[in-house]
Structure formats: structure tokens, C-alpha cells
Design a protein that fits this description.
Length: 356
């Protein structure tokens, strides 16, 4: 009996961001062996020239596979802008060879990208969604948005998966509550709103409870450091810049709260990683985040609302029990809904369905 094979196309597993985290996680599951998964990296971090070279090499490798060792199914990891155009090219090649395509939409602003694109690009988006054997959305909210773009799309919902780690270790008396941001340092991620909220929070606490904020990520690092210095927050705020992914588990294990006050998100891996580590999550009611945290596994603050964010930070920093209860509820939710062992079986079913 021939073993089925799946060819994945995504950004390099060495790049920064949630897609590479997802791919690395799924390639550790039994799905890899059951479907003989191989991976083509169509994008990488680096200069514009390096990215072009990576894409061209990926095209050669992908076309060679189609011609000489044709996979059973192609799984494309799609986001907005350049990612969409790259994956649309691979989808067209796969269709020419008669290979079914699973289009897995990760982008937090895919609907915004679609709405702001010229008519010809909108047609390309609808065509790709309509002709994919399956379209994967990260949550029901995103599934509805994709169906509104293309009603013929065969959409399945598979949340980003993760392995549960365990409950967060709460600080001993006199130790600071450690608050963490993981992501790109930019306005869309709410970083500068968080810094403003931190100033308000520290003034309200007035030394009653100690807290420390770490901002980890690339992007507008200098701007963030300058604002922290201007506001006199350097004793309690550390802007690390980009962090090697191998350090992230340690940073999560030493924290008690994660804040991601974004304006746009899909289903952020930073929130999932925090939940899997039993952290109290403060985030925004955007994208798939409300479905992730549910009614009792996190706090949702409207994007840009520094006053409300400061209030919630004050509460979870001072209220040990509420902080721990929210973190434990988040860990339970991961075990129930987001465990990687559930997700890989979902993809196994999607691949089998794509062949029918």
C-alpha cells in the first residue's frame, strides 16, 4: 500500500512569527509520518534579494516535486500581501498537476487585505479559496469571514495547536509579578498603549506591589526604549528586542501574566503559549482571541484603551488569587480545545476529505 504524502509550503521554520511556530509544532506530531510530510520554505527573513532567491528556489523545488515525486496533497500556509501571491502561484502549479490543495489561512488581516485590493486581486483570492479542496480557518469568526469572501469555499476550523506545559509559578512574597509581551514591537500590537498603561499602573500601585514588564520582539525597538526612558520606567520595564525562539519557553515559565493588546490578530501563538504555561492573559477582543480565551480564561480590553488596560493590570498584579485562577482556567482550556494531539487528527481528516 502506497503511503500518502503531503507537501507543505510556508515561511522557513527559522523565521520569526506564529506560522513558523505552528509548523515546527505540527512537524513533531504523528501526522508527519502518517502523511510523509516534506516542507518547502517559500520565504525567509533577510534582505529583499534573499527573499526573492528563496522564493525562486522554492518554485524550482516545488515544481520538481510535482513533476517527479507528486505528493498526494499540498498544504499551503497563507497570509496577506506577499504571502498570498506566493501561495497563489504554488496553488496554480498544484492544480495544473491535479494535486488537491489545502489552503490554511493564518493572516490576521486577510479580510482587510482582500477589501483593500484591486478587483483582479480580489478575483485571485476568491478563485484560490473556491478551488482549494479545503480551506482551514483558525476559528469560527475567521471561517465566517472567509465564507463571506467566497461562499463556495469548503472551510474547516482548526485552532492553532500547542502542547500544555503546566501551571505558572506565582512569585513569592516580595518578588515582582512578571508581565510579558511577545511579538512585534509596533502600534498594531498595542505595545505603546501598554507602555502608557504601565506608567499609570505603577503610579497607582505606588510601591504596594512590585511588578516588572518585559517587551520581547523586533520592530520599533528604539522607539519603545526611548518612550520607556522618557516616562522614567526603566527600573520596571525591559525592552529586550528580538529573542531567540529557544529562549521563549524559559521567559514564559518565569512570568505570570502575558499582555497582547493588539488591534488585529488571527489566533496569536503568543496567547496560546501563555495559556499553555498557565499565565493570566490580557488581550484584545479581535480576530480569534475571544474564542481562544472564552468567558473565563482571560481578560479582554478594547485596543487602544490605555486606561482600562492599566486598571486590569493593577488588578491582576495585586490580586494573587484572580491572577492564578485566570491562568489555571487558561491551562484547562488549552487541554480541552487546543492540544496538538487533537489538531493533528483534525488535519488527518481534512487531508482524507480533500482526496474524495
Amino acid at each position: 500500500m502506497t503511503v500518502p504524502t503531503a507537501l507543505w509550503v510556508s515561511t522557513s521554520t527559522e523565521t520569526k512569527g506564529g506560522v513558523s511556530t505552528f509548523v515546527r509544532s505540527m512537524l513533531t506530531t504523528p501526522l508527519r509520518e502518517q502523511w510523509g510530510i516534506s516542507h518547502v520554505a517559500s520565504h525567509r527573513d533577510g534582505s529583499a534579494a534573499a527573499k526573492v532567491v528563496q522564493f525562486l528556489l522554492a518554485l524550482v523545488r516545488f515544481t520538481h516535486r510535482m513533476a517527479w515525486r507528486r505528493p498526494t496533497v499540498v498544504h499551503l500556509h497563507v497570509a496577506s500581501r506577499g504571502s498570498f501571491f506566493r501561495k497563489a502561484t504554488f496553488a496554480g502549479i498544484a492544480r495544473a498537476f491535479g494535486v488537491p490543495v489545502v489552503s490554511h489561512v493564518h493572516g490576521a488581516m486577510f479580510d482587510v487585505f482582500y477589501a483593500g485590493s484591486p478587483a483582479v486581486v480580489q478575483w485571485l483570492v476568491r478563485d484560490m479559496l473556491a478551488h482549494s479542496a479545503a480551506v482551514v480557518a483558525l476559528g469560527e469568526t475567521w471561517a465566517q469571514r472567509l465564507r463571506s469572501i467566497e461562499p463556495r469555499a469548503r472551510v474547516s476550523v482548526v485552532p492553532n495547536p500547542i502542547r500544555p506545559v503546566g501551571a505558572a509559578v506565582q512569585p513569592a512574597a516580595g518578588e515582582p509579578v512578571r508581565v510579558l509581551f511577545l511579538g512585534r514591537i509596533e502600534d498594531d500590537k498595542g505595545v505603546f498603549t501598554l507602555i502608557e498603561a504601565w506608567r499609570t499602573m505603577t503610579a497607582r500601585l505606588d510601591g504596594r506591589t512590585s511588578a516588572h514588564l518585559t517587551l520581547a520582539g523586533d520592530g520599533e525597538v528604539s522607539r519603545a526604549r526611548d518612550l520607556v526612558a522618557d516616562l522614567g520606567l526603566e527600573p520596571s520595564v525591559d525592552v529586550t528586542g528580538w529573542v531567540d525562539p529557544r529562549r521563549v519557553p524559559e521567559m514564559l515559565r518565569s512570568s505570570q501574566v502575558l499582555v497582547l493588546a493588539s488591534h488585529y490578530e488571527g489566533q496569536p501563538m503568543a496567547v496560546l503559549e501563555a495559556m499553555a504555561n498557565g499565565l493570566c492573559v490580557i488581550s484584545s477582543p479581535v480576530g480569534g482571541i475571544p474564542e481562544m480565551v472564552g468567558d473565563d480564561a482571560g481578560i479582554l480590553v478594547p485596543p487602544g484603551d490605555a486606561r482600562r488596560l492599566a486598571e486590569e493590570l493593577c488588578d491582576v498584579v495585586e490580586n494573587h488569587q484572580r491572577r492564578a485562577d485566570l491562568g489555571n482556567a487558561a491551562l484547562r482550556r488549552v487541554r480541552d480545545r487546543f492540544d496538538v494531539d487533537v489538531a493533528w487528527r483534525e488535519f488527518d481528516g481534512i487531508y482524507r476529505g480533500a482526496l474524495r
